Amino acid sequence: MAVAHSESETMSKEMTEQKLEARRAFLAKAGKFAIATPPTVAILLSATKNNYVNAASGVVCGNTH
């Protein structure tokens, strides 16, 4: 005995498939950055390490606020 699907169920499945396909397409495009981004961010953070420390400490030219 076949179960009839409602129109809303069919539309919901189509939307789910569209969302999955959009996700796959995004991951295919953005995935190429996954290799380069972490090392680049690490290099940038290591180069500016002292700037972040000073900004967080509230110390400006030896004076505290």
Written description of the protein model:
The protein has helices at residues 7-30, 37-47, 49-57; strands at residues 59-60, 63-64. With 65 residues, the protein is mainly alpha-helical. Strands 1-2 form a two-stranded antiparallel ribbon.
The total number of structural domains is: 1
What is the helical fraction, as a range of percent? Answer: 55-70%
| Strand line-up of the largest beta sheet | 1-2
**Helical run tally:** 3
CA-based gyration radius: 25 Å
Index terms:
elongated; 2 strands; two-stranded antiparallel sheet; 6% strand; 68% helix; mainly alpha; 65 residues
How would you sum up this structure in a few lines?
This protein is mainly alpha-helical. The protein is built from three helices and two strands; from the N terminus they run αααββ. The longest helix is centred in the first third of the chain and has 24 residues, at 7-30.
Question: Which SSEs are present, and which pair or pack?
Answer:
Elements: H1 7-30, H2 37-47, H3 49-57, E1 59-60, E2 63-64
Antiparallel strand pairs: 1-2
